[in-house]
Design a protein that fits this description.
The structure is a homotrimer.
Chain A (H helix, E strand, L loop, with lengths): L18 H19 L12 E6 L5 H12 L3 E5 L12 H11 L3 E6 L4 H11 L5 E7 L5 H15 L13 E5 L6 H12 L3 E5 L21 E4 L3 H4 L4 E4 L4 H4 L7 H8 L14 E3 L12 H4 L7 H21 L3
Parallel strand pairs in A: 1-2, 1-3, 3-4, 5-6, 5-8, 6-7, 8-9
Family (chains A, B, C): Belongs to the aspartate/ornithine carbamoyltransferase superfamily. ATCase family.
GO biological process, one term (chains A, B, C): amino acid metabolic process
GO cellular component, one term (chains A, B, C): cytosol
């Protein structure tokens, strides 16, 4: 499938993404990665198009990544900051979106603390036949598709820089460790990684990974998904380890006994990695609590950590997403 | 009058706008509307020029609209955010303006909660022979000229898309309903609409439209201006109904008995519109309190509501204003 | 030395700046000043490069100046606002910097309330062989090199507009008046002005200029540096007077008895300037407390005040700095 057969208008969730779509994203991102390594670094693909960055939940990292991606594509960017917005004046979120539509926004990148908001805006935009594209930049505990796609690009382009593709992850063992329950990153990654044929091993304390969790996941991929309440079975023979961020609010809400206890049981250390594959790599969506999810020295070890590559992949992957939905005619 | 005969340096108030000037704005906005409907959407008219967006009073909607208009004209934009500014360090507003002047600002778009601030800055800029242009983006209860001009463009381009002009509103009946007393939008619209020869009917409770109000308006247009303390006489036979935003601070300050009472007496509903012209259209400057100034279903009815068109007109009208003052040699 | 021999990768402090480097900055700034006076006002020098404006301490004036400078050089800009940032999520400053590095930032402009932060980030960027350039936009009480360089450009281009250079300040007497102790502006200016061969006379109350202050300054320039606890000896025969900003927090912390008392003893007035050279000029880094450090009428007198020129010089000088570090191959 080449980019001109891309038909998806919005990117809201990875739940129904096909392997072909994943591969198109990976190949497009690889192309943009080459552009970014070159001298020019910009392409005129979205010139004259307006990307509205609507971050109802504060974010610097993801917002900056999308902003830079849009600038590299030569789009005009409108930054929406909820603090000063009409929302405080009683306007609904759909009205805010309709205002940006009427101003001429072509793509809306939406983050909201409640699950489903990007979908609701997409439905309204479609109902109005607006042609606007919606990109979910993280909605509540639901999905964070661009994060999982940049993780996928990081993994596959490590394995084959010039031709990253889903097949490369077939049979790989990937451990996802930490606050699975509250993680939209984990949820999105579960879809993409199992679709690629990887074995995904989740590891967390029972409070952060309740028995019922698997019921929340689509059945189709269950045979590639494993749950552990201890770290070692997840790490054993793992090719990749993804540590998740432990949100401060969980730390103080009795989900874990203490940070030290959590680190002792589920923190990633050089010692614990000995049971993984010898060329194991570590990932983290950031920002990291150094010494909690992962030790400081591992995080900074370029032979082990893919954290910087994840951030770099973020720009090229988001360029790919904005480009694919921005130029499609559907 | 073509654009090259435009001589106004600042746009501060519509009080002394001539019909010729209104028509130049309308024609220029119509031209930019065509640009925005095309593929390119950008013109190099203000390339290298600096537009300083100085919103001392928070605003997302108007600020975004000006920002996008400036970007479509290829200007460079400086956004001033009062929260982090030198104002909190004891600097005067004129000093802030002089700092932006010295940095190279060519146009300053100014919103301030106190009436007269844009005028004061314009006076200082002229005294310094600076050549800087000032555009009032709303000052206290005084004026909001770009809002009234985008309303005018919305109305006249609805009546003749290819050739919007003042004469089209001759003899039309326009109701302005709501918090007239505190509305800079109403004040600006009263000048533009009566100059166009429309009949303007104001309707509000006496607390929001005191007897003395008319004395505040320039005498010249008084014969086209009517005041009502009930809704029906304003709506009867009306071609257009403009509902005004009810500010939260008025709601709690005894200006109205309650929101329900206000809505019962002055809220626009489908039923009440029956006494208007059959092709009546509704406007609102936004953001709307759904179910207060106007019912939700009316607001979303594309056959009745011009609210989206107003937002769209905002970008092309503000492009026209920035363009006209930005390229004039006066 | 022409621009292609520039080898400095970061601009962190003026302590070890050579006369040749100062002159290269002045000549480059003069070139950009000409660009800004022309019609185009933009150069493509940094097209495709990313300038990250990382102001951990709020600032409108300096941030806007750097932002405009970067835009005039056609760079893409990422604005970092600490309020919404990952710092509040427990990330370290170095991690934030590494995130911007991984996103593709080429130059980081850094302001922080603690001395040494820009240096620490520069060290980390060098350790990683990143090629990123760091520009200190003010760190604690330490240094504010771009301010001192724009002051230097203001002074020397006043004396020879077409060929500003260090030699022009040889033997000039420059008074720096006010809160020397807490001023990073004073510290940076002391290095640049004494290197140029000017006599620098510091004047302040003993609380704001303790005896030990001179020990903090590098020995080399001590013979051109004089300390006074009264105003008149500093003003006598002065060619230039730099008033420093009195921070509100000092006003209330017993450093001075009262604002009136301070103004009586150290405020610059027309009367007191009589003992200076007849063509004396006054400077202030802004924002000014009118009537405290300097009287209002002096500040607005274009024959005496260079305050506007300082702001204008800020854009061209910062263009020069971004350009010199941005295009150097070191």
């Amino acid at each position: 499938m080449s980019t001109n057969t891309w038909t998806r208008r919005h990117i809201l969730s990875l739940m129904d993404f096909s392997a072909t779509e994943y591969n198109t994203v990976l190949q497009t991102a690889a192309g943009f990665q080459k552009v970014l390594s070159g001298r020019t670094k910009k392409v005129p693909a979205l010139q004259g198009r307006v990307v509205a960055n609507m971050f109802f939940e504060p974010s610097t990292r993801t917002r900056s990544s999308f902003e830079l991606a849009a600038k590299r594509l030569s789009a005009d960017i409108l930054n929406f900051s909820p603090g000063n917005s009409s929302l405080t004046k009683g306007e609904t979120i759909l009205d805010t979106a309709k205002t940006y539509l009427a101003m001429g926004a072509d793509i809306m990148v939406i983050r909201h603390k409640e699950a489903g908001v990007p979908q609701a805006i997409a439905n309204e935009m479609d109902r109005l036949n607006s042609g606007v594209r919606i990109l979910n930049a993280g909605d509540g505990l639901h999905q964070h598709p661009s994060q999982a796609l940049l993780d996928l690009f990081t993994l596959t382009s490590l394995l084959d820089r010039d031709n990253p593709r889903m097949e490369l992850l077939q049979g790989k063992k990937i451990a996802i460790v930490g606050d699975i329950l509250h993680s939209r990153v984990a949820r999105s990654n579960i879809y993409s990684l199992t679709t690629a044929g990887a074995e995904v091993h989740l590891a967390a304390p029972p409070t952060l990974l309740p028995k019922e969790f698997l019921k929340l996941i689509d059945k189709e991929n269950q045979d590639k998904l494993f749950v552990h309440w201890e770290l070692d079975p997840a790490l054993e023979g793992a090719d990749f380890v993804m540590a998740l961020r432990l949100q401060k609010e969980r730390m103080t809400a009795n989900f874990i006994p203490s940070l030290r206890e959590y680190h002792n049981l589920f923190g990633i250390t050089r010692d614990r990695l000995k049971i993984c594959q010898s060329d194991v790599k570590i990932m983290h969506p950031g920002p990291t609590n150094r010494g909690v999810e992962i030790t400081s020295d591992l995080m900074d070890d370029p032979d082990l950590s893919l954290i910087s590559q994840q951030v770099t992949s973020g720009v090229s992957t988001r360029m790919a997403l904005l480009y694919l939905i921005g130029i499609s005619d559907s």
